[in-house]
Amino acid sequence: MQSIISRNGTETPEPVKAQVKGSVPAWLQGTLLRNGPGLFSVGKSDYNHWFDGLSLIHSFTFGDGEVTYRSRFLKSDTYRRNIKADRIVVSEFGTMIYPDPCKNIFSRAFTHLRNAIPDFTDNNLINIIRYGQDYYASSEVNYINQVDPNSLETVARVNYRNHIALNLATAHPHYDDEGNTYNMGTAIIGLGRPKYVIFKVAADASDKDRKKPALRKVQQVCSIPFRSALYPSYFHSFGMTDNYIVFVEQPYKLDIVKLATAYFRGVNWGSCLKFDKDDVTLFHVINKKTGKAVSTRFYSDALVVFHHINAYEDDGHVVFDMITYKDSNLYDMFYLHNMKQDTSSFIQNNKEFSPPVCQRFVLPLNAHKESPRGVNLVTLTDTTAKAVMQEDGLLYCQPDVLFEGMELPGINYKCNAKKYRYFYGSRLEWSPHPNKIAKVDIVTRTHIEWHQENCYPSEPVYVASPGAEEEDDGVILSSVVSPDPKISPFMLVLNAKTFEEVARASIPAPVHMDIHGMFIPTSC
Prior knowledge:
This protein has eight helices and 38 strands. With about 525 residues, the chain is mainly beta. A hairpin with a 3-residue loop joins strand 17 (about 240) and strand 18. Strands 2, 33, 34, 35, 36 and 37 form a six-stranded antiparallel sheet that branches. It has a six-stranded mixed sheet with strand order 17-18-21-22-27-26, with no helix packed on it. It has a five-stranded antiparallel sheet with strand order 1-7-6-3-38, with no helix packed on it. It has one domain (about 1-415). It is about 10% helix and about 40% strand.
């Protein structure tokens, strides 16, 4: 894997036609945009962590049974500064540049202490998100970069803080049936009372000429005060039902003081995140329309979560599924010195990494402080999840385990916020190199897989067939790379029902491993 993990990617700015084997459905019309790290060294300087690499945007465009590919580096301010200096001059999650040669260190000291956290990189390498009709490369900082989904050119940088008081925001928003976007962020010291903020951007927020960012029409839905002012919970995603937002305040915490002083201590930002195994996990359920939280306080044992799968309401309960870990070691897995190991070596040398577990939590909305103690208040019959009222009036929740060894989950997004049966993801079995993708049937608790020796597929993306009535009537798309020079990178198209290969489109250009993305139908 070393050759495809640590090497620098290259751009393919003009579209190239893929060689199709099999038959790409004629109805598949649109573009799959993908984002991920693609440049791991600049000049003679190297990044330490996979999540530090400079963003490389990919597009796979489908039409009339053909596939074309192109890619461009995100021309962020961070990219331009690094390339101009011919070295890394902007700090990232796992790579701290100390001192920063582009700014006097004493000036930075004043800025950090005043604002409590530093001004982050705008290297948005995690996902592609939509606000209004505008598309953005995103990560988890206060900056996003608008990109043209056709040419992949970087259009403009947008600062959340110019429109809403946020220091950080997730790269995993939700979209409702009307096309409105919901997202969450964190407002830390320097912007008023520390809090988590849920906000909404309307589907029609983009101006006619696309010259003003859709965020100019952002609306705050509600805010949730930090449990601890100096130790806010880290969160990568959240859940949404038709009527509620589900926020998991986990004991994986950001140390604000350490973050503000990271430069002076010569440590990276990743080291400012700590997991408190002796704490509890709180579940906040907020009404989307009123902005008010459900009065019952729900909690569970300490866990770490990065990705929610789905959430929905069922007979007076909020049900939400997510990928959980028993500790916070996952980020350590993606330091490049770990990723350069083959799977067997990684397992031998890194036995402390906990595997991902898909868990279902169920929160009875009619529970209250006077509810009977010692009994399971969950009345749904299709789950073993429990919720038991404690003597102190808090509701203790225990999960139902759905599946083990899966990450990067995706669903038929028409089922988002609704009861569903299937989800798709990458099989992550004690290795940072997922070499399988799978489909899980939640009802039967069975799964099917796609696998090819020496091939590494990306996060699977579901696209529904036109007029589909069944949840899995469609295709799965995944870009596949291989360290074997005899295997060209290819776009894999699977039948979502059977997971049988429908087509593969071999790309006559380098393709780098990515993280997240989205499919944009041609009609959009």
